[in-house]
């Protein structure tokens, strides 16, 4: 066979291969799902109409654009859990940000449960390990001695040395490694569509995944957690506002700290802020406290002295050293990293280590912004977040994934709620600094998403952004003329009326950049978990229940302000007289009946349960404020949920009319003097506890779909259907993509 024949055959073979490959490519669709938390269909429609959102407009014209029905309650954890699992909360077990404690009435964080995991089998385990090490030492010394026929003295001394080794090991292991360390487990139950797809062999990549922490294992893929990841202090986001205005550290309502910047010398200042818990000291503190009652005066005294010392070390500390190097610049040093900052400058990511013991160091990252450098120094610190390359917590799967991403793209925010909403809400941070922080987070995340998208290692790609939600919560006041602070804030910042729209244009730009990286046959889905409504009035449900006689306070109690921090320090938050309380509220828009036989101090007899529920429902539906109804609907849990976990959640769920939302204090079980009070906070737009029918999310696709209405639960079923897969017992309905 001559050369030209051979070449012809090879050419035919190659072209057949290509044809097969393209047909294969044509066959296996690639799907990209972009999530934009809180993107509202009305604002998208307006932006499209005003010609500000060309890429969303293109999707609408060539494909589909629908309002996406959200979950009840319309809260992000609930909606995103339904998005990923395709089931209702009665099956995926996420009913909101907060839940009630199993055996008590106290509010608890409802996304992850933090158990205490014994390390190395606790003290017994460590003694055993030390014994094994000591024995190995003894045996090896003995064998060496035997081999070299050493004298008996040698053998006795090696015995002594081994015992010393044993003691040293056990001392180190016992005193320098905590007995137990926190180990988070998710409440979310049921497989996410990305897990099911990966298990079926679909190459899957999920970035900044909502409600996926601790990182869900993908057999054939990679996942980086997003919304739901705590900070290094195991909270939702403990931020710090350091200032020369403060003389003492104090915690504020939303989980932050006001930290004094102390003058040490002429131009030298220092600030010390609390870091993560020191579990070694926490354990020692607990042990000493347990010892105290059974001690005599003398030993009691030394224990009390030790207790006083240990108490100061329960939290590790971060130290900032600040040099006012010139009138417009400071030099900041933390952990041997020194940077210069001018007013309004943001620092690069700074690494900070908290050494719990010679064996355990927690590494975190944070950024800071010099908000003011004048008469006073004001420095905002983001929460200290897990270091993507040294994370003790499972923020990605495989664990090396976050490290690889950091190596390729630089450090990035790992915290779920990575924006400074609370510092702005507490009126410490200024709007411009808040916006820059939001932009910093977007840039870091889009860099990772774009570079990951360009790789040809996925068939299913999902990435989620959160900024539309954050900016809408904080800036709705500029859009809403009826908001209590609208006039004043618009006067101060007239240009901020366009800010939300600017961030919607930012979303549109991201979608355009993603579209450019796709193949013509790829399917692009844009999804948001809920929309937005004005938040003009705070409704204190516990005050209302108290006024209506369903709730009685403990004797001396009047109104009491709670702090988010109280949640994480499991303080006894609720001070109600349970013997006279029929119903109470915690979380965002839920009411629990104090039921006999179910609740620790239940007083409502099961036969009265129905009557009490109906009475509360009727009275709430009849509640009016300035002549307008406040509550649109009151839902029974059996009405809106189905599945094994329905009994775990509250009895009644409220759907407020636009303008109304449950108050911050009620969510923590607190009380205020008025049942309804004007919302004078910068947090001025919301969706939590607003009736879900009023705050749908968005759905767009680059192809028309077979349905004219869609629920967020349907997304998982629709995506799996594209890959000819089916989930297990999903509530969501399949929809066809008309390619
Ligand atoms: Zn939100």
Strand order, largest beta sheet: 22-8-7-23-1-24-35-2-36
* Chain-averaged pLDDT: 92
> What proportion strand?
15-25%
Number of helices: 22
The geometry reads as globular
Taking Cα atoms only, what radius of gyration do you get, to the nearest Å?
A: 29 Å
- The CATH C-level name of the domain at 535-694 is Alpha Beta
- In helices, the fraction of residues equals 25-40%
Task: Specify the structural class.
Answer: alpha+beta
CA distance, first residue to last residue: 46 Å
What is CATH's topology name of the domain at 535-694? Answer: Gyrase A, domain 2
Ligand list: zinc ion
Number of strands: 36
| CATH architecture title of the domain at 535-694 | 2-Layer Sandwich
Description:
35% of the residues lie in helices and 24% in strands. A hairpin with a 5-residue loop joins strand 10 and strand 11. The chain starts with a helix and ends in a 17-residue tail after the last helix. Among the domains are: 120-176; 535-694, Gyrase A, domain 2 (2-Layer Sandwich). The radius of gyration is 29 Å and the shape is globular. The protein has 22 helices and 36 strands. The strands form nine sheets. Strands 22-8-7-23-1-24-35-2-36 form a nine-stranded mixed β-sheet, with helices on both faces. With 739 residues, the chain is an alpha+beta fold. Helix 9 runs antiparallel to helix 10 and helix 14 runs antiparallel to helix 16. Bound molecules: zinc ion.
């Amino acid at each position: 066979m001559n050369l030209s024949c051979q070449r012809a055959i090879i050419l035919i073979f190659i072209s057949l291969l290509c044809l097969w490959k393209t047909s294969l490519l044509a066959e296996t669709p690639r799907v990209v799902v972009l999530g934009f938390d809180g993107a509202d269909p009305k604002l998208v429609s307006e932006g499209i109409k005003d010609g500000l959102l060309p890429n969303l407009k293109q999707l609408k014209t060539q494909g589909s654009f629908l309002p996406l029905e959200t979950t009840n309650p319309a809260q992000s954890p609930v909606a995103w859990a339904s998005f990923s699992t395709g089931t209702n909360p009665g099956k995926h077990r996420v009913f909101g940000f907060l839940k009630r404690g199993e055996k008590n009435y106290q509010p608890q964080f409802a996304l992850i449960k933090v158990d205490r995991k014994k390390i190395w089998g606790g003290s017994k385990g460590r003694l055993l390990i030390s014994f094994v090490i000591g024995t190995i030492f003894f045996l090896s010394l003995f064998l060496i001695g035997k081999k070299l026929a050493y004298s008996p003295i040698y053998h006795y001394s090696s015995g002594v040395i081994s015992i010393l080794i044993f003691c040293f090991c056990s001392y180190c292991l016992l005193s320098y490694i905590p007995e137990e360390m926190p180990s988070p487990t998710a409440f979310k139950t049921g497989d996410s569509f990305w897990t099911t797809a990966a298990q079926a062999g679909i190459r899957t990549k999920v970035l900044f995944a909502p409600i996926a922490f601790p990182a869900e294992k993908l057999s054939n893929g990679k996942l980086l957690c997003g919304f739901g990841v705590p900070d290094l202090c195991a909270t939702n986001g403990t931020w710090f506002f350091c200032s020369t205005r403060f003389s003492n550290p104090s915690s504020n309502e939303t989980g932050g700290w006001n930290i004094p910047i102390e003058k040490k010398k002429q131009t030298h200042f220092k600030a010390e802020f609390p870091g993560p818990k020191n579990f070694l000291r926490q354990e020692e503190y607990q042990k000493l406290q347990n010892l105290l009652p059974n001690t005599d005066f003398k030993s009691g005294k030394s224990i009390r002295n030790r207790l006083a010392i240990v108490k100061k070390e329960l939290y590790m500390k971060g130290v900032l050293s600040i040099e006012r190097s010139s009138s417009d610049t400071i030099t900041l040093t933390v952990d041997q990293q020194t940077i210069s900052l001018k007013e309004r400058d943001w620092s690069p990511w700074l690494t900070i280590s908290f050494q719990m013991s010679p064996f355990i160091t927690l590494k975190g990252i944070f950024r800071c912004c010099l908000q003011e450098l004048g008469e006073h120094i004001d420095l905002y610190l983001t929460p200290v977040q897990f270091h993507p390359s040294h994370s003790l917590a499972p923020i990605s799967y495989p664990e090396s994934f976050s490290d690889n991403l950091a190596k390729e793209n630089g450090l990035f925010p790992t915290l779920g709620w990575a924006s400074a909403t609370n510092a702005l809400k507490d009126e410490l941070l200024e709007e411009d600094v808040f916006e820059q922080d939001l932009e910093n987070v977007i840039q870091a995340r889009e860099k990772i998403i774009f570079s990951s998208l360009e790789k040809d290692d996925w068939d299913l790609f999902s990435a989620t952004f959160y900024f539309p939600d954050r900016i809408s919560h904080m800036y709705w006041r500029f859009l809403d003329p009826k908001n209590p602070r609208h006039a004043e804030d618009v006067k101060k910042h007239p240009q901020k009326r366009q800010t939300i729209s600017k961030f919607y244009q930012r979303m549109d730009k991201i979608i355009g950049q993603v579209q450019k990286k796709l193949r013509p046959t790829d399917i692009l889905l844009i999804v948001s978990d809920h929309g937005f409504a004005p938040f003009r009035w705070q409704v204190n449900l516990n005050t209302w229940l108290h006024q209506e006689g369903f709730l009685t306070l403990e004797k001396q109690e009047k109104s009491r302000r709670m702090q988010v921090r109280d949640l994480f320090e499991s303080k006894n938050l609720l001070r109600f007289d349970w013997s006279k309380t029929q119903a109470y509220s915690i979380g965002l828009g839920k009411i629990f009946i104090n039921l006999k036989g179910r609740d620790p101090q239940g007083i409502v007899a099961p036969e009265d349960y129905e009557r009490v529920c109906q009475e509360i429902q009727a009275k709430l539906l009849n509640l009016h404020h300035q002549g307008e109804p406040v509550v649109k609907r009151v839902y029974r849990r059996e009405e809106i949920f189905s599945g094994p976990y329905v009994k775990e959640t509250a009895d009644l769920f409220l759907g407020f009319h636009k303008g109304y939302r449950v108050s911050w204090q009620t969510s923590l079980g607190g009380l205020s003097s008025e049942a309804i009070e004007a919302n004078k906070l910068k947090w001025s737009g919301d969706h939590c506890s607003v009736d879900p029918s009023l705050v749908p999310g968005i759905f767009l696709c680059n192809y028309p779909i077979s349905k004219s209405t869609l629920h967020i639960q349907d997304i998982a079923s629709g995506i799996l259907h594209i890959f000819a897969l089916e989930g297990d017992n999903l509530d969501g309905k399949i929809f066809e993509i008309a390619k």
